[in-house]
Amino acid sequence: MRLKSENGSITLEAALVLPFFMLFIVFMASIIRISVAEIALNKSVSETAQIISTHAYPATILSDQVENLASDKLSGISTNIISLEDVEKLVGTSLKELLDFDPSSSNYIDQLGASVVTPIVQEKFADNMNSNSATGSNINVEVELPGSINGGADSYIGITATYDLDLTVPFVDRTITIKKQAYERLWVGGY
């Protein structure tokens, strides 16, 4: 009578189960990485929208005060005395740049808003990720500026940010785009 040998049965079972177990671990690590990036982007966009909404009204008041002060100073000067060079020094930019500026172009204003807000969102994202390897360079920001700062129905600022996350899963070469939006009503002061 011949007995069956069970040598190597554990090795065979491990060879069948281990690849699936490792794939599960890598999959879970990727899901966690995506979740952390999504939470960090959401928090970054929300915090930036809150900062802008609370500081827009005081900045507008300050801007109006500076404009009134400059208007008062320039109203007393006759046009014969002031030169174009003096105006350029006062304004801090050349008149050609001012003449090329088209304030009616909403595309230009949206691009300007996005260029100002993008570094803030990127910095907050890097802080929220708590990692030196995660930078906000893959973040694209779009800003919806409010139609009114005086507390109307359209006095909301909107920030939309997208982040491209490269997956580091074996046999998968994909990029996931995470998109988050935040809308905040502008603080318009108390009456």
From TrEMBL:
Assigned keywords, A-Z: Membrane, Transmembrane, Transmembrane helix
Pfam families reported for this sequence: TadE
Domain of life: Bacteria
Transmembrane segments: 12-32
Sequence ranges assigned to domain TadE-like in this UniProt record: 8-49
Protein's recorded name: Pilus assembly protein
Phylogenetic classification of the source organism: Bacteria, Bacillati, Bacillota, Bacilli, Bacillales
